Amino acid sequence: MATIWEYRSSPHFTAAERAAFDFALAAACVPNAVAPEVQQALRDHWSDDEIVEITGVVALFGFLNRWNDSMATTLEDIGVDAGSRNLVHTGWAPEKHGS
């Protein structure tokens, strides 16, 4: 997790994982930013069934993130701890969520 935001250059990730991360970031944008080259890179490494699963995870977590942020859902301690460790550079703070 320590190098997730450096996935494009980190040796910890394969080309297939980099393609999936590029796709996930583009698919999570509003408006959707999945360009043909992002889609092709994904198809170079993943089957149609795997792409459906990746897309499902991106869509589900996009929904849950928007729901929980909009509703200011109270977070469990493990989520607050993870957010405090991994999202500090984004300006994220747990206060909105009753923590």
Automatic annotation (TrEMBL):
It comes from the Bacteria. InterPro entries: AhpD-like (IPR029032). SUPFAM superfamilies: AhpD-like. Gene3D superfamilies: AhpD-like. This is Carboxymuconolactone decarboxylase family protein. It comes from Ferrovibrio xuzhouensis. The lineage of its organism: Bacteria, Pseudomonadati, Pseudomonadota, Alphaproteobacteria, Rhodospirillales.
